[in-house]
Amino acid sequence: MKISCGTDIIEIERIQKSIENLGEKFLQTIFTEEEKAYCEARKAQKYQHYAARFAAKEATFKALSGAIKEGMDWQLFEVKKCENGKPELKVNCEIRNLENIDISISHCKQYAVATVVAVFKG
Questions:
Q1: What are the residue ranges of helices labelled H in the chain?
Q2: In this predicted structure, what is the pLDDT of residue 73?
Q3: With DSSP H G I counted as helix, E B as strand and the rest as coil, what are the percentages for the chain, rounded to 5?
Q4: Sign, Cα dihedral of 65, 82, 40, 17
Q5: Which of 93, 90, 89 is nearest to 72 (CA)?
Q6: First and final CA of the chain: distance in angstroms?
Q7: Tens digits of pLDDT across the chain (122 residues)
Q8: Domain limits at 50?
Q9: Which residue, 80, 114, 118, 102, is CA-closest to 4?
């Protein structure tokens, strides 16, 4: 068994500026339709949620570096919210020997952070 982790922290203002300056092009490149709908429903706090999901995707790429067969595509991974409120990472590609993956995200007024832990067979 091999365990790999990735962590990312980002300034919420950076994501807000990217969305305001690049608009839908930025959103379509990074986020799935379901992620966009979730974030937009958060109204005044939507940028915090976008930033948390951005950090989650960055942390995922770090945790899975070398194991991704496809190229870097932001939509290979989707952050979903379980009924109990815990975030869940949906993997939309084949990852060599991936047995399990777990994610934790958090945000405050200025920053969003995410940690991903991946467990591989063998």
A1: 12-22, 24-30, 33-40, 46-64
A2: 87
A3: 40, 35, 25
A4: negative
A5: 93
A6: 5
A7: 999 999 999 999 999 999 999 999 999 999 999 999 999 999 999 999 999 999 999 999 999 987 776 667 899 899 999 889 899 999 988 888 999 999 999 999 999 999 999 999 97
A8: 2-120
A9: 118
The token duo for 93 is: 């590609």
Structure tokens at 103: 């994610």
- Residues in the chain, total: 122
Distance CA(23)–CA(16), nearest Å, equals 10
Instruction: Output the domain CATH number for residue 108.
Output: 3.90.470.20
- Structural domain count of the chain: 1
Query: Which tokens in the block code for residue 80?
Result: 């979903």
